[in-house]
Amino acid sequence: MTIQNPNKLFPLFLTSRLEETKRYYLEKACFRVVVESAAYLQLAHGGEDGPELCFMAPDGFPDGKPRPAFDGKGVVVSIPTPNADAKALDMLKRGAEHLTAVEDKPWGWRSFLTVDPNGLILDFFHVYKEYSPM
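Now predict its structure.
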């Protein structure tokens, strides 16, 4: 077996709300746990090659040295989904609050915004048309 590096990003957010974060992503956003320990949580959305988000306690690094936690401002993570309208409806039924309605964006995405317990804004989208800058 050959070990290979993945070919995608793994954004890592430092938070003291690991349990609350886990509940939100599992119960409201339908992610699944990929890796979990006392100080680390890695979640995935969709299939095997789907996007992943990581969360860790501020003192969760191997050296135990605390780092500043994410302050809940200025980050939007876009997450592909087969159908943004269906995803929005499902998340509403599960108790998630939305920041925006589902709408078409000029760059060809149909999406909506919601927010996790850490203040991280999630932009669930599907492509509805090809974007052409000119």
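The CA atoms of residues 34 and 48 lie 10 Å apart.
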